[in-house]
Structure formats: structure tokens, C-alpha cells
Recover the amino acids of this structure.
């Protein structure tokens, strides 16, 4: 079957099925495409109007917003003023999930759980239509890159895959819970034999796949897949380089979270556009909005989810909204900087706090010097201020690599740091299958995740 016929077959089947489930994804994609052709001013007015409608709806239907601090601050007449709303945190969502449900119809309502990369998971109720808006936003953004719904896809994400569901989306999924050599080889074979239109998943997993392919299949063509859609973890520059040079893929970054679904997606010019049709983003410091272009906490308001309308929810990431529009002409604002979880702070030998993502960035230069297959995966664990343990997935000992890893820690966190290196067959991932290059060993939730991961694995 010709590839374009294959794509439209899967696309039509998928849209029909979702339509029957009350999730009109195909229709929403067309709607979103029409909206993004608007001039910027007209687009902003549309979003402002929709935001006000959402705020009125939330105030009128959600018990939590009519009581306590919310009830005092958001009188029905002040409801349309977003900044009169207190900022919600994950703790409140966890503790008061029921009171955050709208009193309106619960037809088809379902729950999504966060992956608990910071503490207890968060449960968020979704309406089928809100889910459809989220997917439509993602498919629409892939159309910016010429990848239609129904495109043949290699997926490396999460801990379990359902063959039938994946198959209906023309997708072949591989769990990222434990990226064994065997699993990487299965994914590599799919890549080589089926030549998908896109690979999609966690950047750490796709990077491991890219490394595996080049190490085990040196005869493979230079360009193996045109597009790599990445998200779910912070995306480091060395991973982009890997995917570009080792898979020949154009890297498209997505950013989202369980609370509100997709938040931003990269356009062909490389800007991370906020999906304003799905979520309203503010940047705040001490729960107050910062001036345009300044850095701060990312605070999101769900624009479509009427089952559990989350208004001004602080999700733990930080960033900056560019005061300038993107050259591509799309009307959505641009997230100019994005840094993962504010809680991911490590400590240098002199006591200063260092964001863990610095390690991911430092890996860039190290990885660039290594041939494929030498360093499959690495996890930096800070045991205390001066003690580090590094888990390395690689074949056999390598004194030069050890010296470089030790130097990387000392260069970033200070010369007095003591570093111990352990070689393992596979580094355990979080229960979601996500991977972090660093971890503070004394963080209680990190420990509980470890034990959860081990329990599931056993
Ligand atoms: Zn753009």
C-alpha cells in the first residue's frame, strides 16, 4: 500500500472511532487550523473571550471555587479577572479533587494520573471533549511539520503498550520502563524494517535507541526517520544532536502535563508555541504575574476541560514567555525558556544550589566525544553534599570514561566531591518509564518511586 494511502486509511479509521466515542478529534483539528490563520490581535481577543467564559463557568459550577479563600476572593462579578484567582498547587488538587469537580454532567468522565515525578500522583478528571481538544492540538502541531495523523509511528513511551490500540493508530509502541538491549534491538529492527514516518517518545529513550542503532547496525542508512517528536522529560541539547546525527531526524519538542494536557509545541522555526487554544499560560513569581519577558513559575489554566476546570495551577516548571512573536507568523505566544521541575535542585560542595538540568547540559560535551555504544545511559545520584554515586549502563569498565564522569561532577559541583561509579545492566526508571539523569538520593519521593518501580518489576 502506498504510504499516503496507508496514512489516510489509519487517519479516517481513527477519527471515526474517536467520533463514535464522543471525541471529535478530526473536526477539532480543522477548527484549530482555521483559528491559527487569524491575525494575532483577533486570535488574542478570541482567547480572552474564551478564558472569561471558562472562568465564569468554573466559578458557577465548581464547589471549591465558591468556598474558602477562593469564595472570598472570586466574587461572581470578579470571576472574569484571572488575577483575582488564588494560585492552585498540586497539593490542593490532590487533597480536594472531589470539590474541584464541576457539578455539571459527568458523562464519559475519566481520570488521568500524573507520573508522580514529584511526589504523590495527581488525579485529574477529564471530559471526552477536553481529551479530544488535547489530541487535536498535538496532531495540528505535527501538521506544521508535514506529519499527518495516521502516519506510521514508532513510540517509546510509558510502561505498557496495548497492541490493538497502538495498531489502530498505525503505531508500534515499546515500553521505556527497562530499556534492555533486547528491547532496543526490537525497536531498532522496527526502525530498519518498517521505516516509520515519525518516532515519538521520551528523549532519553529515543537517544538510547539512536545510540543502539549506530553501535549495532553500522550499515544502516544515515537517515532513518524524518521526524522525532519528543516530550515528557526535559529535552537536552545533546539529545537533539543525537537524534539529528544518528537518526537523521528533525526534532520536534512538545511540552505538556497531566493537569492540562498539551501546553506547547515547536514550530518549524524552532519556537515553542503555547497552545493557547488548550491552555492559558502565565508566568508568576510569588503567585503574582511577572512583567512581559521575565522568568518565573509556569501557571496554567485549562481552557477546555469542563469536568475539572483547573484555574491558575502551578505545575512546578519555570519559564519565560517571549515578548516578541515568532517569525513563522503563527499567532500563539512563544515559550522562550523552559526549565523542568523547580524541586530538582542539587547542592554544590560550597552549599550553593544547582538545578539538576545543569548535569544534562554538561553531558553534552562528554557524549559528543564518545563513539556510539560506549555510554548507553547514566544516572547521577547525590547521596549528600560531598558524595555522589553514578550508575552507568555500558559494556565493561572504562577508566577514561570513569575519569571523565568524575571530572564532570567535580567541575559542576566542586573539586571536593567524592564520586563512586557503578556499572549496571539497566538503570531502573521511574514507574512511568521516564528517565532522569540525576536524582537526590535523600528525597523521600525519589525513594518511594524506586521502591514502586522495583515492586512492579518484580
Ligand atoms: Zn513559530
Amino acid at each position: 500500500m502506498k504510504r499516503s494511502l496507508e496514512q489516510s486509511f489509519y487517519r479516517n479509521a481513527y477519527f471515526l472511532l474517536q467520533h463514535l466515542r464522543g471525541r471529535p478529534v478530526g473536526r477539532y483539528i480543522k477548527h484549530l487550523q482555521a483559528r491559527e490563520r487569524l491575525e494575532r490581535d483577533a486570535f488574542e481577543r478570541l482567547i480572552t473571550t474564551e478564558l472569561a467564559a471558562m472562568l465564569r463557568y468554573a466559578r458557577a459550577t465548581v464547589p471549591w471555587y465558591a468556598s474558602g479563600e477562593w469564595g472570598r476572593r472570586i466574587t461572581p462579578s470578579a470571576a472574569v479577572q484571572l488575577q483575582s484567582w488564588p494560585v492552585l498547587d498540586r497539593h490542593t488538587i490532590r487533597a480536594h479533587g472531589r470539590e474541584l469537580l464541576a457539578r455539571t454532567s459527568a458523562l464519559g468522565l475519566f481520570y488521568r494520573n500524573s507520573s508522580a515525578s514529584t511526589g504523590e500522583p495527581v488525579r485529574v478528571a477529564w471530559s471526552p471533549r477536553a481529551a479530544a481538544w488535547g489530541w487535536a492540538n498535538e496532531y495540528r502541531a505535527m501538521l506544521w511539520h508535514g506529519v499527518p495523523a495516521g502516519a506510521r509511528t514508532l513510540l517509546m513511551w510509558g510502561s505498557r503498550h496495548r497492541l490493538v490500540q497502538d495498531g489502530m493508530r498505525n503505531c508500534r509502541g515499546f515500553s521505556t520502563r527497562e530499556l534492555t538491549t533486547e528491547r532496543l534491538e526490537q525497536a531498532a529492527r522496527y526502525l530498519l524494517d518498517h521505516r516509520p514516518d515519525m518516532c515519538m517518545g521520551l528523549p532519553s529513550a529515543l537517544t538510547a535507541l539512536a545510540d543502539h542503532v549506530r553501535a549495532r547496525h553500522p550499515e544502516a542508512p544515515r537517515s532513518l526517520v524524518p521526524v522525532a517528536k519528543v516530550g515528557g522529560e526535559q529535552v537536552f541539547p545533546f539529545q537533539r544532536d543525537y537524534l539529528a546525527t544518528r537518526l537523521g531526524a528533525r526534532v520536534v519538542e512538545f511540552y505538556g502535563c497531566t493537569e492540562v494536557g498539551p501546553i506547547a509545541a515547536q514550530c518549524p522555526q524552532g519556537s515553542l508555541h503555547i497552545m493557547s487554544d488548550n491552555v492559558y499560560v502565565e508566568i508568576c513569581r510569588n503567585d503574582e504575574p511577572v512583567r512581559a519577558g521575565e522568568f518565573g513559575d509556569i501557571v496554567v489554566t485549562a481552557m477546555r476541560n469542563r469536568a475539572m476546570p483547573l484555574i491558575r495551577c502551578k505545575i512546578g516548571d519555570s519559564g519565560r514567555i517571549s515578548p516578541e512573536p515568532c517569525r513563522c507568523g503563527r499567532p500563539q505566544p512563544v515559550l522562550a525558556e523552559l526549565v523542568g521541575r523547580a524541586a530538582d535542585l542539587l547542592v554544590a560542595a560550597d552549599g550553593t544550589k544547582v538545578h539538576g538540568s545543569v548535569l544534562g547540559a554538561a553531558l553534552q560535551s562528554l557524549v559528543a566525544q564518545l563513539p556510539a555504544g560506549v555510554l548507553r545511559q547514566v544516572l547521577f545520584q547525590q547521596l549528600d553534599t560531598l558524595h555522589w554515586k553514578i550508575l552507568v549502563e555500558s559494556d565493561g569498565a572504562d577508566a577514561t570514561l570513569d575519569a571523565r564522569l568524575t571530572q564532570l561532577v567535580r567541575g559542576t559541583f566542586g573539586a571536593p566531591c567524592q564520586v563512586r561509579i557503578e556499572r549496571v545492566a539497566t538503570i531502573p526508571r521511574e514507574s512511568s518509564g521516564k528517565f532522569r539523569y540525576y536524582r537526590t538520593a535523600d528525597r523521600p519521593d525519589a525513594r518511594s518511586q524506586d521502591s514502586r518501580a522495583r515492586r512492579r518489576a518484580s
Residues 104 and 442 are 43 Å apart (CA to CA). The chain has two domains: 1-341, 345-457.
